[in-house]
């Protein structure tokens, strides 16, 4: 018997569930056919990078910005500086992100160098044998050994070797220096306003 003041159960045990159950006995076969299809597609496409080239970007927040990770795509400005058109970039395995913006010259130059290095390693086979277009590989490049591994991401920083702390470094108060720099930046507008007011007052007195 059901205890407490609950809803009475209405379990429908007389439904013919055997006719409504779905089976996946073809799962191993489908798995194999998908793998074979992927192999055929890779052979038909030819030699190409295993993954698209992505930019090196800093992780967000002050806690993780020392790390460098792969971004979504290169900016239009980076592609322009590297001499690559947006449409061309998509056709040669370079990811493009039109929403990303460059916030530092160092980060922008890092990705421009990354694109230029990729271009030096790139081998573009002509669509039709013997009919090479502008930018297609010719001669020994077509028979040279190629690698499909992507360019590795650069390291975030270079670690210094251990050394003794100098006396001049011990005297520097790093925390106070940072606090003063922050305060100076915060009060810069008010400082300039006071100076401008004093200058106008001095001119009026004259």
From TrEMBL:
Mark the transmembrane ranges: none
The annotated region (Disordered) lies at 185-206
Q: Domain of life, per the record?
A: Eukaryota
| Keywords tagged on the record | Ribonucleoprotein, Ribosomal protein
MF terms in GO:
RNA binding; structural constituent of ribosome
- Any one Gene Ontology BP term: translation
GO CC terms on record?
Answer: cytosolic large ribosomal subunit
| InterPro entries the UniProt entry points to | Ribosomal_eL13
| Entry-linked HAMAP family | Ribosomal_eL13
Give the family from UniProt: Belongs to the eukaryotic ribosomal protein eL13 family.
* Name of this protein: Ribosomal protein L13e
